[in-house]
Write a structure and sequence with these properties.
Elements (H helix, E strand, L loop, with lengths): L1 H20 L14 H13 L21 H10 L15 H11 L11 H7 L1 E2 L19 E6 L4 E6 L4 E7 L9 E2 L5 E5 L4 E6 L4 E7 L3 E7 L5 E8 L2 E6 L4 E6 L11 E7 L4 E6 L4 E6 L29 E5 L6 E4 L5 E5 L12 E4 L4 E5 L12 E5 L2 E6 L6 E6 L5 E6 L7 E2 L6 E5 L9 E6 L4 E7 L5 E6 L5 E6 L4 E7 L5 E7 L2 E6 H5 L8
Antiparallel strand pairs: 1-8, 2-3, 2-33, 3-4, 5-6, 6-7, 7-8, 9-10, 10-11, 11-12, 13-14, 14-15, 15-16, 17-18, 18-19, 19-20, 21-22, 22-23, 23-24, 25-26, 26-27, 27-28, 29-30, 30-31, 31-32
The structure holds heme D.
The site of heme D has 16 residues, from strand 33.
Length: about 525
Protein backbone atom coordinates (compact mmCIF):
# COMPACT_ATOMS: atom_id res chain seq x y z
CA UNK A 1 0.00 0.00 0.00
CA UNK A 2 2.58 2.45 1.17
CA UNK A 3 4.84 2.61 -1.86
CA UNK A 4 2.06 3.64 -4.22
CA UNK A 5 0.63 6.16 -1.78
CA UNK A 6 4.01 7.81 -1.38
CA UNK A 7 4.79 7.94 -5.04
CA UNK A 8 1.54 9.43 -6.24
CA UNK A 9 1.89 12.97 -4.82
CA UNK A 10 5.42 13.05 -6.22
CA UNK A 11 4.14 12.09 -9.62
CA UNK A 12 1.44 14.71 -9.43
CA UNK A 13 3.88 17.36 -8.31
CA UNK A 14 6.21 16.42 -11.14
CA UNK A 15 3.44 16.58 -13.71
CA UNK A 16 2.34 19.96 -12.39
CA UNK A 17 5.92 21.24 -12.35
CA UNK A 18 6.55 20.15 -15.94
CA UNK A 19 3.31 21.76 -17.03
CA UNK A 20 4.05 25.01 -15.14
CA UNK A 21 7.54 25.25 -16.64
CA UNK A 22 5.85 25.33 -20.02
CA UNK A 23 7.80 22.38 -21.37
CA UNK A 24 5.12 21.80 -23.98
CA UNK A 25 7.18 19.62 -26.30
CA UNK A 26 4.08 17.86 -27.58
CA UNK A 27 2.06 20.97 -28.31
CA UNK A 28 1.27 21.64 -31.91
CA UNK A 29 2.16 24.78 -33.80
CA UNK A 30 -0.93 26.16 -35.57
CA UNK A 31 -1.53 24.06 -38.69
CA UNK A 32 0.83 21.25 -37.65
CA UNK A 33 -0.39 17.71 -37.01
CA UNK A 34 -1.15 17.08 -33.37
CA UNK A 35 0.94 14.48 -31.58
CA UNK A 36 -1.81 13.04 -29.38
CA UNK A 37 0.44 10.32 -28.05
CA UNK A 38 3.04 12.90 -26.99
CA UNK A 39 0.34 15.03 -25.36
CA UNK A 40 -0.89 11.96 -23.51
CA UNK A 41 2.59 11.16 -22.20
CA UNK A 42 3.10 14.74 -21.13
CA UNK A 43 -0.20 15.49 -19.45
CA UNK A 44 -1.96 12.23 -18.65
CA UNK A 45 0.55 9.41 -18.19
CA UNK A 46 1.62 10.39 -14.68
CA UNK A 47 -1.84 9.53 -13.36
CA UNK A 48 -3.31 7.20 -15.98
CA UNK A 49 -0.14 5.20 -16.73
CA UNK A 50 2.22 5.27 -19.70
CA UNK A 51 0.35 2.31 -21.22
CA UNK A 52 -3.07 3.78 -20.27
CA UNK A 53 -3.57 0.91 -17.84
CA UNK A 54 -4.38 3.30 -14.99
CA UNK A 55 -2.50 4.48 -11.93
CA UNK A 56 -3.99 6.87 -9.47
CA UNK A 57 -6.49 7.71 -12.21
CA UNK A 58 -8.56 5.09 -14.03
CA UNK A 59 -7.40 3.06 -17.02
CA UNK A 60 -8.04 4.83 -20.35
CA UNK A 61 -8.60 1.86 -22.65
CA UNK A 62 -11.49 1.46 -25.11
CA UNK A 63 -12.74 -1.42 -22.93
CA UNK A 64 -12.78 0.78 -19.83
CA UNK A 65 -14.34 3.72 -21.64
CA UNK A 66 -17.31 1.86 -23.08
CA UNK A 67 -19.58 3.61 -20.62
CA UNK A 68 -18.16 7.13 -21.12
CA UNK A 69 -19.66 9.04 -24.04
CA UNK A 70 -17.13 11.02 -26.10
CA UNK A 71 -18.67 14.46 -25.36
CA UNK A 72 -18.37 13.61 -21.67
CA UNK A 73 -14.71 12.64 -22.17
CA UNK A 74 -14.07 16.01 -23.85
CA UNK A 75 -15.72 17.78 -20.94
CA UNK A 76 -13.65 15.92 -18.36
CA UNK A 77 -10.38 16.67 -20.18
CA UNK A 78 -11.35 20.34 -20.52
CA UNK A 79 -12.91 20.99 -17.14
CA UNK A 80 -11.67 18.18 -14.93
CA UNK A 81 -13.77 15.98 -12.71
CA UNK A 82 -15.23 17.39 -9.52
CA UNK A 83 -14.07 15.91 -6.23
CA UNK A 84 -11.16 14.04 -7.86
CA UNK A 85 -7.53 14.84 -8.67
CA UNK A 86 -8.47 15.18 -12.35
CA UNK A 87 -7.80 18.80 -13.26
CA UNK A 88 -9.13 20.59 -16.36
CA UNK A 89 -6.78 21.31 -19.27
CA UNK A 90 -8.84 23.98 -21.10
CA UNK A 91 -6.39 26.71 -20.08
CA UNK A 92 -3.30 24.81 -21.15
CA UNK A 93 -4.37 22.97 -24.28
CA UNK A 94 -6.01 24.17 -27.45
CA UNK A 95 -9.44 22.84 -28.33
CA UNK A 96 -8.01 20.77 -31.19
CA UNK A 97 -5.45 19.23 -28.83
CA UNK A 98 -8.15 18.27 -26.35
CA UNK A 99 -10.15 16.69 -29.17
CA UNK A 100 -7.08 14.78 -30.33
CA UNK A 101 -6.47 13.52 -26.80
CA UNK A 102 -10.09 12.44 -26.43
CA UNK A 103 -9.90 10.55 -29.74
CA UNK A 104 -6.57 8.99 -28.74
CA UNK A 105 -7.81 7.40 -25.54
CA UNK A 106 -10.56 5.56 -27.44
CA UNK A 107 -7.97 3.92 -29.74
CA UNK A 108 -6.86 0.38 -28.87
CA UNK A 109 -3.44 0.13 -27.27
CA UNK A 110 -1.01 -1.74 -29.51
CA UNK A 111 0.35 -4.21 -28.79
CA UNK A 112 -2.70 -5.29 -26.77
CA UNK A 113 -2.07 -4.82 -23.05
CA UNK A 114 -1.21 -7.94 -21.09
CA UNK A 115 -1.84 -8.63 -17.43
CA UNK A 116 0.19 -11.64 -16.38
CA UNK A 117 0.27 -13.60 -13.13
CA UNK A 118 3.46 -11.71 -12.31
CA UNK A 119 1.65 -8.39 -12.83
CA UNK A 120 -1.15 -9.53 -10.56
CA UNK A 121 1.21 -10.61 -7.81
CA UNK A 122 3.34 -7.47 -8.14
CA UNK A 123 0.27 -5.28 -7.75
CA UNK A 124 -0.66 -6.79 -4.38
CA UNK A 125 -0.37 -4.67 -1.26
CA UNK A 126 -0.96 -6.14 2.18
CA UNK A 127 -0.85 -4.57 5.62
CA UNK A 128 1.15 -7.06 7.66
CA UNK A 129 -0.03 -5.52 10.91
CA UNK A 130 -3.63 -6.53 10.09
CA UNK A 131 -3.26 -9.84 11.95
CA UNK A 132 -2.89 -7.91 15.21
CA UNK A 133 -5.97 -5.73 14.81
CA UNK A 134 -8.72 -6.34 17.39
CA UNK A 135 -11.36 -8.89 16.46
CA UNK A 136 -14.28 -6.70 17.50
CA UNK A 137 -15.75 -3.48 16.15
CA UNK A 138 -13.90 -0.36 17.24
CA UNK A 139 -17.12 1.66 17.07
CA UNK A 140 -20.52 1.54 18.80
CA UNK A 141 -23.34 0.20 16.68
CA UNK A 142 -24.78 -3.18 15.68
CA UNK A 143 -22.16 -4.62 13.27
CA UNK A 144 -24.84 -6.81 11.73
CA UNK A 145 -27.04 -3.85 10.87
CA UNK A 146 -24.26 -1.88 9.24
CA UNK A 147 -24.78 -0.50 5.73
CA UNK A 148 -21.89 -0.24 3.29
CA UNK A 149 -22.77 2.52 0.84
CA UNK A 150 -20.86 2.91 -2.44
CA UNK A 151 -20.80 6.59 -3.39
CA UNK A 152 -20.04 6.75 -7.11
CA UNK A 153 -20.08 10.57 -7.27
CA UNK A 154 -16.70 11.09 -5.68
CA UNK A 155 -15.64 7.43 -5.40
CA UNK A 156 -15.99 6.97 -1.67
CA UNK A 157 -17.58 4.42 0.62
CA UNK A 158 -19.67 5.35 3.66
CA UNK A 159 -20.47 3.06 6.57
CA UNK A 160 -23.87 3.83 8.07
CA UNK A 161 -25.39 2.70 11.35
CA UNK A 162 -28.60 0.93 10.33
CA UNK A 163 -30.39 1.72 13.60
CA UNK A 164 -29.67 5.44 13.93
CA UNK A 165 -29.08 6.07 10.23
CA UNK A 166 -25.91 8.00 11.00
CA UNK A 167 -22.59 7.69 9.16
CA UNK A 168 -19.87 5.94 11.16
CA UNK A 169 -17.01 6.40 8.74
CA UNK A 170 -16.21 7.46 5.16
CA UNK A 171 -13.17 6.54 3.06
CA UNK A 172 -11.92 6.86 -0.54
CA UNK A 173 -12.46 3.84 -2.76
CA UNK A 174 -10.87 2.78 -6.02
CA UNK A 175 -12.32 4.50 -9.09
CA UNK A 176 -15.68 3.18 -10.32
CA UNK A 177 -16.57 0.26 -8.09
CA UNK A 178 -19.05 -2.08 -9.78
CA UNK A 179 -21.20 -4.95 -8.57
CA UNK A 180 -22.17 -5.55 -4.99
CA UNK A 181 -19.36 -5.59 -2.43
CA UNK A 182 -19.02 -9.07 -0.92
CA UNK A 183 -18.65 -9.91 2.78
CA UNK A 184 -16.71 -12.52 4.75
CA UNK A 185 -19.12 -14.90 6.54
CA UNK A 186 -18.68 -13.16 9.92
CA UNK A 187 -19.35 -9.74 8.37
CA UNK A 188 -15.95 -8.38 9.44
CA UNK A 189 -14.37 -7.94 6.01
CA UNK A 190 -15.81 -6.52 2.84
CA UNK A 191 -14.34 -6.94 -0.65
CA UNK A 192 -14.89 -4.30 -3.33
CA UNK A 193 -14.30 -4.77 -7.07
CA UNK A 194 -13.56 -1.84 -9.41
CA UNK A 195 -14.12 -1.71 -13.14
CA UNK A 196 -10.35 -1.18 -13.48
CA UNK A 197 -9.67 -4.56 -11.96
CA UNK A 198 -8.80 -3.69 -8.36
CA UNK A 199 -10.03 -5.81 -5.48
CA UNK A 200 -9.86 -4.10 -2.08
CA UNK A 201 -10.26 -5.98 1.20
CA UNK A 202 -11.42 -3.72 4.00
CA UNK A 203 -11.71 -4.46 7.75
CA UNK A 204 -15.08 -3.01 8.78
CA UNK A 205 -14.39 -3.52 12.49
CA UNK A 206 -11.08 -1.64 12.44
CA UNK A 207 -11.95 0.78 9.62
CA UNK A 208 -8.76 -0.03 7.73
CA UNK A 209 -7.71 -1.37 4.37
CA UNK A 210 -6.16 -4.84 4.68
CA UNK A 211 -5.11 -5.70 1.14
CA UNK A 212 -5.48 -4.78 -2.50
CA UNK A 213 -4.65 -6.52 -5.74
CA UNK A 214 -5.27 -5.79 -9.40
CA UNK A 215 -6.88 -8.92 -10.81
CA UNK A 216 -7.27 -7.64 -14.35
CA UNK A 217 -7.46 -4.54 -16.49
CA UNK A 218 -11.22 -4.46 -16.95
CA UNK A 219 -13.19 -6.35 -14.34
CA UNK A 220 -16.88 -7.12 -13.87
CA UNK A 221 -17.32 -8.26 -10.29
CA UNK A 222 -15.98 -10.35 -7.45
CA UNK A 223 -17.42 -13.21 -5.38
CA UNK A 224 -16.39 -14.47 -1.95
CA UNK A 225 -16.81 -18.13 -1.02
CA UNK A 226 -19.28 -19.01 1.72
CA UNK A 227 -16.43 -20.30 3.90
CA UNK A 228 -14.56 -16.99 3.50
CA UNK A 229 -11.43 -18.70 2.18
CA UNK A 230 -11.59 -17.70 -1.46
CA UNK A 231 -12.17 -14.63 -3.60
CA UNK A 232 -12.79 -14.85 -7.33
CA UNK A 233 -12.75 -12.08 -9.94
CA UNK A 234 -14.44 -12.03 -13.36
CA UNK A 235 -12.58 -10.07 -16.07
CA UNK A 236 -13.41 -8.72 -19.50
CA UNK A 237 -9.74 -7.88 -20.08
CA UNK A 238 -7.86 -10.15 -20.13
CA UNK A 239 -10.30 -13.02 -20.68
CA UNK A 240 -9.85 -14.60 -17.26
CA UNK A 241 -11.40 -15.56 -13.97
CA UNK A 242 -8.84 -15.25 -11.18
CA UNK A 243 -8.85 -17.02 -7.83
CA UNK A 244 -7.29 -15.54 -4.68
CA UNK A 245 -7.08 -16.58 -1.07
CA UNK A 246 -8.80 -14.43 1.55
CA UNK A 247 -5.78 -12.10 1.78
CA UNK A 248 -5.73 -11.64 -1.99
CA UNK A 249 -2.72 -13.83 -2.75
CA UNK A 250 -3.02 -15.17 -6.29
CA UNK A 251 -3.96 -18.86 -6.27
CA UNK A 252 -4.96 -19.67 -9.82
CA UNK A 253 -5.84 -18.06 -13.13
CA UNK A 254 -8.51 -19.58 -15.37
CA UNK A 255 -8.26 -18.64 -19.04
CA UNK A 256 -11.81 -18.30 -20.35
CA UNK A 257 -11.52 -20.55 -23.36
CA UNK A 258 -13.85 -23.08 -24.89
CA UNK A 259 -12.96 -26.71 -24.20
CA UNK A 260 -11.18 -27.07 -27.56
CA UNK A 261 -9.22 -23.92 -26.77
CA UNK A 262 -10.27 -22.27 -30.00
CA UNK A 263 -12.58 -19.58 -28.65
CA UNK A 264 -11.73 -17.04 -26.00
CA UNK A 265 -14.34 -15.17 -23.98
CA UNK A 266 -14.89 -12.21 -21.73
CA UNK A 267 -16.14 -13.33 -18.31
CA UNK A 268 -19.52 -11.76 -17.55
CA UNK A 269 -19.78 -12.42 -13.84
CA UNK A 270 -18.90 -14.81 -11.03
CA UNK A 271 -21.22 -15.76 -8.17
CA UNK A 272 -20.83 -17.89 -5.07
CA UNK A 273 -23.17 -20.90 -4.94
CA UNK A 274 -22.90 -21.33 -1.17
CA UNK A 275 -24.65 -24.70 -0.60
CA UNK A 276 -22.73 -26.24 -3.50
CA UNK A 277 -19.36 -24.92 -2.27
CA UNK A 278 -18.60 -23.59 -5.68
CA UNK A 279 -18.28 -20.50 -7.82
CA UNK A 280 -20.46 -20.26 -10.90
CA UNK A 281 -18.92 -18.32 -13.76
CA UNK A 282 -20.79 -16.88 -16.77
CA UNK A 283 -18.90 -16.48 -20.04
CA UNK A 284 -20.03 -13.73 -22.39
CA UNK A 285 -18.72 -14.99 -25.73
CA UNK A 286 -18.67 -18.77 -25.34
CA UNK A 287 -21.91 -20.66 -24.72
CA UNK A 288 -20.72 -22.38 -21.55
CA UNK A 289 -21.44 -21.96 -17.87
CA UNK A 290 -18.65 -22.96 -15.52
CA UNK A 291 -18.84 -24.28 -12.00
CA UNK A 292 -15.61 -24.25 -9.99
CA UNK A 293 -15.79 -26.26 -6.78
CA UNK A 294 -13.92 -25.14 -3.68
CA UNK A 295 -15.09 -28.18 -1.72
CA UNK A 296 -11.77 -29.83 -0.92
CA UNK A 297 -13.22 -32.89 0.78
CA UNK A 298 -15.91 -33.75 -1.67
CA UNK A 299 -14.48 -33.10 -5.08
CA UNK A 300 -15.88 -33.94 -7.52
CA UNK A 301 -19.08 -32.92 -5.78
CA UNK A 302 -21.78 -34.18 -8.10
CA UNK A 303 -19.91 -36.85 -9.98
CA UNK A 304 -22.00 -39.70 -11.33
CA UNK A 305 -24.88 -37.46 -12.27
CA UNK A 306 -22.83 -35.66 -14.77
CA UNK A 307 -22.05 -36.87 -18.24
CA UNK A 308 -22.02 -34.30 -20.91
CA UNK A 309 -23.76 -35.55 -24.01
CA UNK A 310 -21.75 -33.43 -26.43
CA UNK A 311 -18.30 -33.73 -25.08
CA UNK A 312 -18.26 -37.03 -23.26
CA UNK A 313 -15.95 -38.21 -20.55
CA UNK A 314 -13.56 -35.29 -20.83
CA UNK A 315 -16.02 -33.22 -18.82
CA UNK A 316 -16.94 -35.83 -16.26
CA UNK A 317 -13.93 -35.25 -14.02
CA UNK A 318 -14.43 -31.80 -12.64
CA UNK A 319 -12.18 -31.96 -9.59
CA UNK A 320 -11.34 -29.37 -7.05
CA UNK A 321 -10.68 -25.81 -8.24
CA UNK A 322 -11.22 -26.78 -11.85
CA UNK A 323 -14.01 -25.65 -14.14
CA UNK A 324 -16.80 -28.04 -14.86
CA UNK A 325 -18.52 -26.92 -18.04
CA UNK A 326 -22.19 -26.85 -18.86
CA UNK A 327 -22.68 -26.33 -22.59
CA UNK A 328 -25.49 -23.88 -23.38
CA UNK A 329 -27.45 -22.79 -26.44
CA UNK A 330 -26.78 -19.15 -25.68
CA UNK A 331 -24.15 -17.43 -23.53
CA UNK A 332 -25.36 -15.81 -20.30
CA UNK A 333 -24.76 -12.32 -18.99
CA UNK A 334 -26.25 -12.35 -15.57
CA UNK A 335 -28.32 -14.76 -13.59
CA UNK A 336 -30.24 -15.76 -10.50
CA UNK A 337 -30.04 -18.95 -8.38
CA UNK A 338 -33.17 -20.70 -7.17
CA UNK A 339 -33.34 -21.49 -3.42
CA UNK A 340 -31.64 -24.86 -3.82
CA UNK A 341 -28.86 -23.41 -5.98
CA UNK A 342 -29.41 -26.33 -8.36
CA UNK A 343 -30.87 -24.04 -10.98
CA UNK A 344 -29.49 -20.96 -12.65
CA UNK A 345 -31.99 -18.63 -14.28
CA UNK A 346 -30.00 -16.71 -16.84
CA UNK A 347 -30.31 -14.34 -19.75
CA UNK A 348 -28.02 -12.86 -22.36
CA UNK A 349 -28.05 -9.24 -23.42
CA UNK A 350 -29.30 -8.86 -27.02
CA UNK A 351 -26.43 -8.43 -29.47
CA UNK A 352 -28.30 -5.96 -31.68
CA UNK A 353 -31.45 -3.87 -31.84
CA UNK A 354 -34.63 -5.89 -31.89
CA UNK A 355 -32.90 -9.20 -31.24
CA UNK A 356 -34.98 -11.50 -29.06
CA UNK A 357 -33.72 -12.54 -25.65
CA UNK A 358 -33.35 -16.15 -24.72
CA UNK A 359 -33.93 -16.68 -21.03
CA UNK A 360 -32.78 -20.10 -19.86
CA UNK A 361 -33.15 -22.32 -16.82
CA UNK A 362 -29.99 -24.39 -16.42
CA UNK A 363 -29.75 -27.34 -14.04
CA UNK A 364 -26.24 -27.38 -12.61
CA UNK A 365 -26.43 -31.08 -11.65
CA UNK A 366 -27.53 -32.53 -14.98
CA UNK A 367 -25.60 -29.73 -16.68
CA UNK A 368 -27.96 -28.64 -19.35
CA UNK A 369 -30.73 -26.21 -20.07
CA UNK A 370 -33.99 -27.66 -18.83
CA UNK A 371 -36.48 -24.89 -19.64
CA UNK A 372 -36.90 -21.61 -21.45
CA UNK A 373 -37.54 -18.74 -19.12
CA UNK A 374 -40.82 -17.02 -19.98
CA UNK A 375 -39.42 -13.50 -19.71
CA UNK A 376 -39.10 -11.15 -22.68
CA UNK A 377 -37.29 -7.82 -22.90
CA UNK A 378 -34.05 -7.68 -20.96
CA UNK A 379 -34.51 -9.09 -17.46
CA UNK A 380 -31.91 -8.00 -14.92
CA UNK A 381 -31.84 -11.35 -13.20
CA UNK A 382 -28.90 -10.48 -10.97
CA UNK A 383 -31.35 -8.20 -9.15
CA UNK A 384 -34.07 -10.81 -8.80
CA UNK A 385 -35.74 -11.74 -5.51
CA UNK A 386 -37.75 -14.78 -4.38
CA UNK A 387 -40.77 -15.20 -2.08
CA UNK A 388 -43.85 -17.31 -1.40
CA UNK A 389 -47.02 -16.48 -3.29
CA UNK A 390 -50.22 -18.47 -2.88
CA UNK A 391 -48.33 -21.55 -1.75
CA UNK A 392 -45.91 -21.32 -4.64
CA UNK A 393 -42.29 -20.28 -4.62
CA UNK A 394 -41.78 -17.49 -7.15
CA UNK A 395 -39.01 -15.22 -8.32
CA UNK A 396 -39.42 -11.65 -9.55
CA UNK A 397 -37.04 -9.78 -11.79
CA UNK A 398 -36.83 -6.19 -12.98
CA UNK A 399 -36.42 -5.48 -16.68
CA UNK A 400 -33.81 -3.18 -18.24
CA UNK A 401 -35.89 -2.67 -21.37
CA UNK A 402 -39.55 -2.68 -20.37
CA UNK A 403 -41.55 -1.16 -17.53
CA UNK A 404 -42.50 -4.38 -15.84
CA UNK A 405 -41.56 -6.85 -13.17
CA UNK A 406 -41.76 -10.46 -14.31
CA UNK A 407 -42.87 -13.09 -11.79
CA UNK A 408 -42.05 -16.74 -12.53
CA UNK A 409 -43.00 -19.98 -10.74
CA UNK A 410 -39.80 -21.70 -9.63
CA UNK A 411 -41.22 -25.21 -9.77
CA UNK A 412 -42.57 -25.42 -13.29
CA UNK A 413 -40.96 -22.22 -14.65
CA UNK A 414 -44.28 -20.86 -15.85
CA UNK A 415 -45.05 -17.14 -16.07
CA UNK A 416 -47.12 -16.02 -13.09
CA UNK A 417 -47.59 -12.31 -13.66
CA UNK A 418 -46.19 -9.26 -15.42
CA UNK A 419 -46.49 -6.29 -13.05
CA UNK A 420 -46.53 -2.96 -14.89
CA UNK A 421 -44.22 -0.23 -13.55
CA UNK A 422 -43.87 3.32 -14.95
CA UNK A 423 -40.64 2.45 -16.77
CA UNK A 424 -37.74 -0.01 -17.11
CA UNK A 425 -35.60 -0.37 -14.02
CA UNK A 426 -32.36 -1.84 -12.72
CA UNK A 427 -32.95 -3.03 -9.19
CA UNK A 428 -35.57 -4.50 -6.93
CA UNK A 429 -35.47 -5.57 -3.30
CA UNK A 430 -37.57 -6.96 -0.52
CA UNK A 431 -36.98 -8.63 2.85
CA UNK A 432 -38.22 -11.93 4.28
CA UNK A 433 -40.07 -9.96 6.97
CA UNK A 434 -41.66 -7.41 4.66
CA UNK A 435 -44.90 -7.72 2.76
CA UNK A 436 -43.59 -5.40 0.05
CA UNK A 437 -41.02 -5.35 -2.72
CA UNK A 438 -39.61 -2.08 -4.06
CA UNK A 439 -38.56 -1.56 -7.68
CA UNK A 440 -37.02 1.43 -9.44
CA UNK A 441 -37.59 2.71 -12.98
CA UNK A 442 -34.21 4.35 -13.35
CA UNK A 443 -33.80 3.39 -17.03
CA UNK A 444 -36.76 5.59 -17.96
CA UNK A 445 -36.23 9.34 -18.51
CA UNK A 446 -39.81 10.04 -17.47
CA UNK A 447 -40.03 7.73 -14.46
CA UNK A 448 -36.47 7.51 -13.12
CA UNK A 449 -37.71 9.51 -10.13
CA UNK A 450 -40.23 6.88 -9.02
CA UNK A 451 -40.00 3.80 -6.81
CA UNK A 452 -42.92 1.40 -7.13
CA UNK A 453 -43.97 -0.60 -4.08
CA UNK A 454 -45.44 -4.01 -4.85
CA UNK A 455 -47.57 -6.06 -2.48
CA UNK A 456 -46.06 -9.57 -2.63
CA UNK A 457 -49.45 -11.15 -1.82
CA UNK A 458 -51.56 -9.42 -4.48
CA UNK A 459 -48.73 -8.76 -6.94
CA UNK A 460 -50.10 -5.25 -7.42
CA UNK A 461 -48.31 -1.90 -7.20
CA UNK A 462 -49.88 -0.40 -4.08
CA UNK A 463 -47.88 2.80 -3.68
CA UNK A 464 -45.13 4.93 -5.18
CA UNK A 465 -42.59 7.32 -3.71
CA UNK A 466 -41.09 10.06 -5.91
CA UNK A 467 -38.30 12.61 -6.01
CA UNK A 468 -39.55 14.71 -8.94
CA UNK A 469 -36.99 15.15 -11.72
CA UNK A 470 -34.23 13.29 -9.84
CA UNK A 471 -33.07 9.66 -10.06
CA UNK A 472 -34.35 7.47 -7.25
CA UNK A 473 -33.05 3.90 -7.29
CA UNK A 474 -31.55 0.86 -5.57
CA UNK A 475 -33.12 0.11 -2.21
CA UNK A 476 -32.00 -2.13 0.65
CA UNK A 477 -33.84 -3.06 3.84
CA UNK A 478 -32.52 -2.87 7.39
CA UNK A 479 -31.72 -6.13 9.16
CA UNK A 480 -35.19 -6.30 10.75
CA UNK A 481 -36.99 -5.36 7.53
CA UNK A 482 -38.61 -2.31 9.14
CA UNK A 483 -36.89 0.40 7.11
CA UNK A 484 -35.94 0.83 3.50
CA UNK A 485 -32.94 2.87 2.37
CA UNK A 486 -33.12 4.26 -1.17
CA UNK A 487 -30.58 6.22 -3.22
CA UNK A 488 -31.19 9.74 -4.41
CA UNK A 489 -28.78 9.03 -7.22
CA UNK A 490 -27.42 12.56 -7.78
CA UNK A 491 -24.02 14.20 -7.19
CA UNK A 492 -25.59 16.09 -4.28
CA UNK A 493 -27.71 13.07 -3.48
CA UNK A 494 -28.75 11.29 -0.32
CA UNK A 495 -29.78 8.08 1.30
CA UNK A 496 -33.49 8.41 1.94
CA UNK A 497 -34.82 6.24 4.75
CA UNK A 498 -38.49 5.18 4.52
CA UNK A 499 -40.69 3.34 6.97
CA UNK A 500 -41.18 -0.05 5.26
CA UNK A 501 -44.81 -0.33 6.41
CA UNK A 502 -46.29 3.10 5.68
CA UNK A 503 -43.71 4.30 3.11
CA UNK A 504 -43.19 7.64 4.90
CA UNK A 505 -39.79 9.31 4.83
CA UNK A 506 -37.97 8.97 8.16
CA UNK A 507 -34.61 10.55 7.47
CA UNK A 508 -32.27 11.83 4.75
CA UNK A 509 -28.47 11.41 4.89
CA UNK A 510 -26.49 13.46 2.30
CA UNK A 511 -24.33 11.34 -0.04
CA UNK A 512 -22.48 11.80 -3.33
CA UNK A 513 -24.39 9.70 -5.88
CA UNK A 514 -24.93 6.64 -3.67
CA UNK A 515 -24.87 3.95 -6.34
CA UNK A 516 -25.64 1.01 -4.07
CA UNK A 517 -25.98 0.06 -0.41
CA UNK A 518 -25.55 -3.30 1.27
CA UNK A 519 -26.72 -4.43 4.69
CA UNK A 520 -24.23 -6.78 6.37
CA UNK A 521 -26.82 -9.10 7.91
CA UNK A 522 -29.04 -9.36 4.84
CA UNK A 523 -25.99 -10.23 2.76
CA UNK A 524 -24.32 -12.77 5.01
CA UNK A 525 -27.62 -14.46 5.86
CA UNK A 526 -28.61 -14.41 2.16
CA UNK A 527 -32.01 -12.92 2.82
CA UNK A 528 -34.46 -13.89 0.08
CA UNK A 529 -35.16 -10.23 -0.70
CA UNK A 530 -31.64 -9.16 -1.55
CA UNK A 531 -29.08 -9.90 -4.24
CA UNK A 532 -26.55 -12.63 -3.57
FE1 LIG B 1 -24.23 -3.43 -12.98
C1 LIG B 1 -24.34 -5.50 -10.23
C2 LIG B 1 -23.83 -6.17 -14.97
C3 LIG B 1 -24.39 -1.45 -15.72
C4 LIG B 1 -24.67 -0.72 -11.00
N1 LIG B 1 -24.14 -5.44 -12.66
C5 LIG B 1 -24.15 -6.07 -11.45
C6 LIG B 1 -23.94 -7.47 -11.65
C7 LIG B 1 -23.79 -7.68 -12.99
C8 LIG B 1 -23.92 -6.39 -13.63
C9 LIG B 1 -23.54 -9.00 -13.70
C10 LIG B 1 -23.92 -8.51 -10.54
C11 LIG B 1 -22.54 -8.58 -9.99
C12 LIG B 1 -22.43 -8.54 -8.49
O1 LIG B 1 -23.21 -7.86 -7.80
O2 LIG B 1 -21.49 -9.17 -7.99
N2 LIG B 1 -24.16 -3.75 -15.01
C13 LIG B 1 -24.03 -4.94 -15.59
C14 LIG B 1 -24.09 -4.80 -17.02
O3 LIG B 1 -23.97 -5.72 -17.87
C15 LIG B 1 -24.40 -3.40 -17.32
C16 LIG B 1 -25.82 -3.30 -17.88
C17 LIG B 1 -23.47 -2.79 -18.37
C18 LIG B 1 -22.09 -2.50 -17.89
O4 LIG B 1 -21.57 -1.48 -18.30
O5 LIG B 1 -21.52 -3.23 -17.13
C19 LIG B 1 -24.30 -2.79 -15.94
N3 LIG B 1 -24.46 -1.45 -13.31
C20 LIG B 1 -24.50 -0.84 -14.50
C21 LIG B 1 -24.71 0.57 -14.36
O6 LIG B 1 -24.78 1.42 -15.30
C22 LIG B 1 -24.93 0.86 -12.95
C23 LIG B 1 -26.38 1.26 -12.75
C24 LIG B 1 -24.06 2.00 -12.41
C25 LIG B 1 -22.60 1.70 -12.27
O7 LIG B 1 -22.07 2.17 -11.29
O8 LIG B 1 -21.99 1.04 -13.09
C26 LIG B 1 -24.65 -0.51 -12.34
N4 LIG B 1 -24.46 -3.17 -11.00
C27 LIG B 1 -24.64 -1.96 -10.39
C28 LIG B 1 -24.82 -2.17 -8.96
C29 LIG B 1 -24.74 -3.55 -8.74
C30 LIG B 1 -24.51 -4.14 -10.04
C31 LIG B 1 -25.09 -1.07 -7.92
C32 LIG B 1 -24.88 -4.29 -7.42
C33 LIG B 1 -26.33 -4.59 -7.27
C34 LIG B 1 -26.69 -5.17 -5.95
O9 LIG B 1 -27.46 -4.52 -5.26
O10 LIG B 1 -26.22 -6.24 -5.56
Amino acid sequence: MKTILLKTPLKLALAAAIASLGLDYARAEPGAAIDASGLYQQYCASCHGAQRLGGMGPALLPESLERLRKPEALKVISQGRAATQMQGFAERLQEAEIKALAAYIYQPVTPAPQWSDADISASRRFDVSSSTWPARPQWRADPMNLFVVVEGGDHHVSLVDGDKFEPIHRFASRFALHGGPKFSPDGRYVYFGSRDGWISKYDLWNLKLVAEVRAGLNMRNVAVSADGRWVMAANYLPHTAVLFDADLNLVKRFDAKSLDGQQSSRVSAVYDAAPRHSFVVALKDVAELWEISYDEGAAPIHDGLVHDYRMGEALAKPGYLNPRRTPLEEALDDFFFDDSYRHVLGAARPRGDGEAMLGQVVNLDVRRKIATLPIAGMPHLGSGISFNWQGRRVMASPNLKDGRISVVDMKDWSAVREIATPGPGFFMRSHARSRYAWADSMMSAGAKDTLSIIDKQTLEVVAQVREPGKTLAHVEFTKDGRHVLASLWEMDGALIVYDAANFKEVKRVPMSKPVGKYNVWNKISRDEGTSH
